[in-house]
């Protein structure tokens, strides 16, 4: 019998580990749609990354963590490797009939109206304006008292100019005005939330909030209105409280198209589940070549120069 040390080893390829991780991602967490995975194997360790779609609405953070833990444990169990999920990417959200409803707000309070901006740029400017003079002054004072150097010329010049300047001088007045304006600006930034281009999604607890960008809402509304029969061009502008839609009708009944387009806009806004509902304003005008009653035979007729026996699909004019 061949000794155990000379029987060879079993090597699991990175592709096999990726396939196992893909299958594990579909077992728990309610992944919806195709799952793509990648893996890198180094000895007895494997780094796995998974891209998938999750159902919506649902607790995304909890669901993503559950998928990550399950993929790591299940892949390690089946392969015998030490698996680490380095990246879990949620590429899209899809509605599912069996998806869990979002958690209601906590008893402590609902989600905030808007996300607060970190104000990184104003904070960096103020910190820089305060740090540079303070550092120079500190370095000069340390040089004078610790090493016995003479005071810097700029510090003596500043002290002499300030001692000779009157309180009602023009530079003092201008500096005071600038200081007041800067102070009011900082108070305004501190008292306003910022991030006005993001809307908070309703149905999440106060400890975790989810927001969508205005461009995402505009894209969803535009796609819904373009699905209306006869609509050719759509322009959407999403403001703070209102969605303005301007559409061009190429053919069909104008009144029916208006009602269908309005219903599409309202449905798209409702599907966003925003914490603060948006008002909708729709303006529908007809194109210069508008046809109230389009010829169905002309719309659905196959091309005359198409080859015989080829499959023809209906093409709807947008």
Automatic annotation (TrEMBL):
<feature type="region of interest" description="Disordered">
    <location>
        <begin position="96"/>
        <end position="115"/>
    </location>
</feature>
<dbReference type="InterPro" id="IPR046253">
    <property type="entry name" value="DUF6286"/>
</dbReference>
<feature type="transmembrane region" description="Helical">
    <location>
        <begin position="169"/>
        <end position="189"/>
    </location>
</feature>
<keyword id="KW-1133">Transmembrane helix</keyword>
<feature type="region of interest" description="Disordered">
    <location>
        <begin position="298"/>
        <end position="318"/>
    </location>
</feature>
<dbReference type="Pfam" id="PF19803">
    <property type="entry name" value="DUF6286"/>
</dbReference>
<keyword id="KW-0812">Transmembrane</keyword>
<protein>
    <recommendedName>
        <fullName>DUF6286 domain-containing protein</fullName>
    </recommendedName>
</protein>
<feature type="domain" description="DUF6286">
    <location>
        <begin position="181"/>
        <end position="285"/>
    </location>
</feature>
<feature type="compositionally biased region" description="Low complexity">
    <location>
        <begin position="301"/>
        <end position="310"/>
    </location>
</feature>
<feature type="transmembrane region" description="Helical">
    <location>
        <begin position="123"/>
        <end position="149"/>
    </location>
</feature>
<keyword id="KW-0472">Membrane</keyword>
